[in-house]
Amino acid sequence: MSDMFRLKVAKDSLQAFLTVEEKESDLSLVTEQKIISFLESRGVTFGIQGETVKNITENPELLYNENLIAVGNKPLIGNDGFLKIAITEESDANQEFNYRNVIKIPSVQTGQKIGSIIPPTSGINGKTIFNQELNAVPGKPLKLRMGKNIVEKDGQLYATIDGQLSLTENKINVFPVFEVNGDLDLKTGNITFIGNVVIRGNVPTGYSVHAGGDIKIFGMVEGADLNAGGSIYVSGGIAGSNRGKITAVGDIQASYINQGHVEAGHNIEVKSTILHSFLKAGNQVLCSSGNVIGGCCTAGVSIHTLNLGNEMHSKTEICFNVDLQLLEQEKLLTHQLDQIKTETEKLKIIAEKLTEKYRTTGSLNSQELTLLKRQKITESQLNTQELEVFEQLQEIYRAINKIEQSYLLVNGTIYPNVTITFGKYKRIINSLNKAVKIHMNNKEIVIHSINKSY
């Protein structure tokens, strides 16, 4: 009777489909027990779909088509570790600016708990239809570097000074604060400070502010030089007049950017217009409720805007580029990895020769014993180096492969004379497009309506 059925098993052994072996088979002989016995004879004992078995016995003609008869459990990937902040932002009673609360940076006191490092979860094992265990992939632990004035105890983080919290993608600090109660002028001069800088006014053209932590400005920034080891928050706009440069390791947020040069290691977020500016973000450029007109915007992952270009067809460029420094670093690390493997192979040959001599003669002289001992230590060190270089390469590969997931999202209109570049691939937009997502697909830049599935 078992020859009556045919079983098709998925490659991952998580699904099985049942059909009849021969169209001429006598389907009146099909029973629930015979189906179960057939499955067991093929080793299928887990995830048998009882409702499907019942339907087949009641309607045997279903066997002329494939029936999902058994389903295994996929292993569930564990959650990555993360930092849970234990403090809330404090409001500033003297300021009415509330654009996404970007100007509100939490202040902390000595000994105050800042947050908790939540460990990754191990995930949940799966099981094939053959009742075989599938090991879960555990989540990755949080890679967080302890910065200045932070102490960690049993997974809890505490401040060691009074100051303000500064967070970047993989580093946390508490910095002291330097405040200027008004515009930057000849009296205050340029600022270089190890911690956070707060300016309760404007930063005019020609001035510079360098902060080890965050910079927050309650006015506007003109053609000035700003550099932050953390993030930069500007309650007003940035009117650079093609002078000065604003850079931050973390995020940069402003109301608008006009003729500015702005670079952020993570996100650049703008409330309204980005006009004739050069922007570069390691992660995202977000101008979701405003317009990007003229200039060039570059991002590592995505760019979001309402409208792109304008009715005057101002030349506007959007780029998703692979960081050339990453490519150079990949080349150096690959060469280093090859060297380590070559040295390891040489050490293995030495060990094999010495081991063979000991096996043949039963002894080694003192010089050979010292060489063998040194070989084992060096090989262990090289194995550690090889693992470290390999992990660095994997991080670089992940960063380079981001371009495959990069995209441009325009909720309003893309006007003609917009050039979009993904690495070495380029496409010029010569007609109006509305509400679209643009991304790479099989080495081609494609445009999809965000009102349709893709």
From TrEMBL:
Residues 6-170 form the Flagellar Assembly Protein A N-terminal region domain. Pfam families: FapA, FapA_N. This is DUF342 domain-containing protein. It comes from Litchfieldia luteola. The lineage of its organism: Bacteria, Bacillati, Bacillota, Bacilli, Bacillales.
